[in-house]
Amino acid sequence: MHHVEDNAWGWDLSSTEGFRRDSLAGFVVYWLRFLLVSGIELPLYALRRGRHSHAATAAAAMAGGWLLTVLLWQRCAVATFYTLLLPYLVSSFALMFGNWSQHIFVDLDAPRDDYKLTYNCLACPDNPKTYNDGYHIIHHANSRLHWSEMPAAFVQQLELHDAKDALAFKGIGFFDVGLAVFTGRLGWLADRIVPCGPKQAARSRQEWVQLLQHRLQPVTRVKVA
Mean per-residue pLDDT for 25-31? Predict the structure, then answer.
């Protein structure tokens, strides 16, 4: 769903583009939506896209999981909380904060452009542990590309990254970016941007900050058909 719909509001259930992405309140709403209603929205999404077997599988899995949780809660609430509910709360928060951070900078003038709806994290300590997930622009442009080929693909596309004003940060990961945005440290992020070519190299620090501010604006266009 996520890569097919490409962060499009109204279709990608994990879309960030409709939110003001430096808003903590916006993120809380985003997380709670996933936490509380994804079990309903995901099967409905599959039905709308004509994926009936996926809809049935998702609905059965979600319903079965929650039914089992209720039954186990009645048998031993403490064990159920620590083995099922608490891990669900923690993991859902981490997953949604990760995706929010990956798609925190979206160009409202070109929200469907893979080079403007996310960014790359270069020389990031997380990359060897996450199969080069830091090359997230490359991942969205071709989600079937093997992780070991992503750095070379990035180098091959430097000119395209420069032309499209694609963002690349050095030495930091997605969580670092998300936390920096929430704490208002856009200048700190600008200092860690790697220019991908002469166009970007000519931009000043303040111009980078302005670009980052622009890409935090919510996208208000109608949903993709």
Answer: 97
